[in-house]
């Protein structure tokens, strides 16, 4: 896996091909839009979607922590997709994961889905905060356009970028980076994406799944 190191607000951060950001000085992973229980929510409405997305998300977190020393994870909103995400199978898997990482600090910046789904189970020991949640030079948010005192790290959009040739095109998850904010790609399995176009002063780094490439 090949990450991209860059300077933001005077700090070195790593853009990870696993669709996350790592802040080495704080040993912190930043995760946007993991949407635990989205597949369960669809199945509860009679939509036949695959099982196993919760395990896939948890395994992905474990792989990141194995690769990068991690003291804390900050989730940029939409931790749970809907009230159906409180299903017993989903909660059991999450509690088992939490039991393997008892010293890990977890912080959730509430997003729009969290307000509908309700806070995660207290046994998960997640610190709940509202946006903007400012630590050092960074303001951790769910919505990218919220007024905040620091450089904004946000989610919500699920940004993807379309790479095109004369004969074909490819949509890849991306980091949308501007002078005052960065929008992270959605981390969760089964979450989709919204095609973005960089505005003035913005640029895009895409994840191929194996490496991060800055393309605009």
Summarize the structure.
The chain has helices spanning 38-44, 53-67, 88-100, 112-117, and strands at 4-8, 11-16, 20-23, 28-31, 72-75, 105-109, 126-129, 133-135, 138-140, 151-154, 159-164, 169-177, 181-183, 194-195, 203-207, 212-214. It has 216 residues and is an alpha/beta fold.
Topology:
Blueprint: E1 4-8, E2 11-16, E3 20-23, E4 28-31, H1 38-44, H2 53-67, E5 72-75, H3 88-100, E6 105-109, H4 112-117, E7 126-129, E8 133-135, E9 138-140, E10 151-154, E11 159-164, E12 169-177, E13 181-183, E14 194-195, E15 203-207, E16 212-214
Parallel strand pairs: 4-5, 5-6, 6-7, 9-10, 10-13, 11-14
Antiparallel strand pairs: 1-2, 2-3, 3-4, 8-9, 11-12, 12-13, 12-15, 15-16
Tell the overall outline. Answer: globular
Q: Spans of 5+ residues with little confidence (pLDDT < 50)?
A: 45-50
Give helix % range.
10-25%
**Rg from C-alpha positions?**
17 Å
Order of helices and strands: EEEEHHEHEHEEEEEEEEEE
Going by helix content, strand content and strand pairing, the class is alpha/beta
Query: What is the mean pLDDT?
Result: 88
Report the β-strand fraction as a percent range.
25-35%
Distance between the termini: 21 Å
Strand tally, please? 16
Number of helices: 4
Oligomer: single chain
Please describe the biggest sheet, giving its number of strands, its sense, and whether it closes into a barrel.
9 strands, mixed
């Amino acid at each position: 896996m090949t990450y991209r190191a860059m300077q933001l607000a005077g700090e070195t951060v790593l853009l990870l091909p696993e669709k996350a950001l790592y802040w080495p000085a704080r040993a912190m992973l930043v995760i946007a839009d993991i949407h635990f229980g989205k597949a369960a929510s669809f199945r509860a409405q009679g939509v036949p979607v695959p099982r196993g997305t919760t395990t896939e998300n948890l395994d992905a977190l474990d792989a990141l922590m194995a690769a990068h020393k991690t003291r804390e994870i900050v989730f940029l909103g939409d931790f749970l997709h809907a009230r159906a995400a409180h299903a017993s199978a989903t909660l059991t898997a999450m509690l088992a994961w939490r039991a393997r990482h008892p010293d890990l600090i977890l912080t959730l910046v509430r997003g729009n889905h969290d307000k509908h789904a309700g806070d995660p189970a207290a046994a998960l020991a997640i610190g709940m905060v509202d946006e903007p949640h400012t630590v050092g030079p960074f303001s951790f948010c769910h919505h990218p356009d919220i007024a905040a005192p620091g450089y904004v790290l946000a989610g919500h959009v699920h940004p993807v970028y379309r790479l095109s040739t004369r004969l074909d095109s490819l949509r890849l998850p991306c980091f949308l980076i501007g002078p005052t904010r960065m929008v992270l790609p959605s981390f969760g399995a089964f979450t989709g994406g919204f095609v973005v176009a960089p505005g003035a002063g913005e640029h895009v780094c895409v994840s191929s799944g194996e490496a991060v490439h800055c393309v605009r």
